[in-house]
Amino acid sequence: MSVTRRQFLTGLSGLAVVGLGVGGATRYWLGRNEAPGGHDYELIAAPLDVELVPGHQTPAWAYGGAAPGLELRARQGDWLRVKFINHLPVPTTVHWHGIRLPLEMDGVPYVSQLPVLPGESFDYRFRVPDAGSYWYHPHVTSSEQLGRGLVGPLIVEEREPTGFVHERILSLKNWHVDEEGGFLPFSIPREAARNGTLGRLSTINGKPNPTLDLPAGQIVRVRLLNLDNTATYRLNLKGQGEARIYALDGNPVTPRAMGPDYWLGPGMRICLALRMPAAGEEIALRDGPVRLGTLRAVPSEGSATDWPAPLPPNPIAEPDLANAEKLNFNFEWVGSTADEGVDTPPSLWQINGVAWDINDKTCADRPIARLQRGKSYIFELKNMTQYQHPVHLHGMSFKVIASNRRKIIPYFTDTFLLGRNERAQVALVADNPGTWMFHCHVIDHMETGLMAAIEVA
Ligand code: C2O
Ligand code: CU
Ligand code: CU
Question: Is the pTM of the predicted complex or chain greater than 0.85?
């Protein structure tokens, strides 16, 4: 499965590295030109100083001159073509979280592609089969790269109008910064062995506790994306107005009331229809009791609309539960046994008794499960730890069907927040050939063992 740099570079020779403007100003983002039937972006990753703490600079890394990164949009069924250019001082890749695509486009180093070296570029081209809220991020030294800001929304629009007139994207991230905006460690072993290393400054779209203006009396499609390394947000809204859930992660659900708290783990998304109150009223968006930001109703034109119809389902194969094969996946805490070198993260977690070594490029050659293409499977996920794990699978979506801890209304997703000591069942049709990462999306859990490969052949 390992590949050489040469294989990947074929066809790329002669590609000019572009992006640095003349005259001092650095142009990170060269704009978007829309080709018929496709969406073309040039996406540059580069250092960027941002002001998270007033009066101080934070040396972030940015996609398209923004952290969180440039919002990418495509239309369901169309091609997304992104020329990615690495102006970082380190190798990287881009992974398209939740998108069902060919393995070569999945951005996993040494499995999908070689890391993109500083000054190099890589052409990502794939169709987006499902409409919904997705995101993109590197899959190389992830604690630091995501921690410094390399996370961005990817929105796939439905093919037909949905009835939503207004839309807002709220990207949530807790930055690992101190009072002067300097970075703190992205991963501390003592924390990695527990909930994961939390950032200290929570932001929405890169702003701490912002006030966002939304049209009074109107229904707004609010896409909340948890792009954080570690934090599970216990989302709730306080104030007038009414919120209904329209989609979870990438997939529509039957619209329902939001309920008191929605636990949005790292990597997860939720799409709400929010009816804003009268002008002047405010809604607090909160994480448990803590305010993350304020949604302020401002006077708007246009008459109030009714709740939109449910969103159309995505074309995901329905697993055949009666004939599905059952596979067990146990998520365990093991603690560190091996001696830890400076560059070697400790091994703290395991899936089915195996820990992933992020420095071993051949780990993917030893998948913990081999699935037969076209067959249905039920994964029994068993959390044997005291911590929750947002369990994520690349390449395919799965259907959450049961849990021993809560009532499940079955739905398709790419990330399931497995509670402490929870047992849950998810099912899928193994319809995408490749070796797919299967990991916890608490980044320092992933980097200290909670990752595996699943092969579909
Ligand atoms: Cu957001 Cu390996 O994934
Ligand atoms: Cu992913
Ligand atoms: Cu975890």
Answer: yes
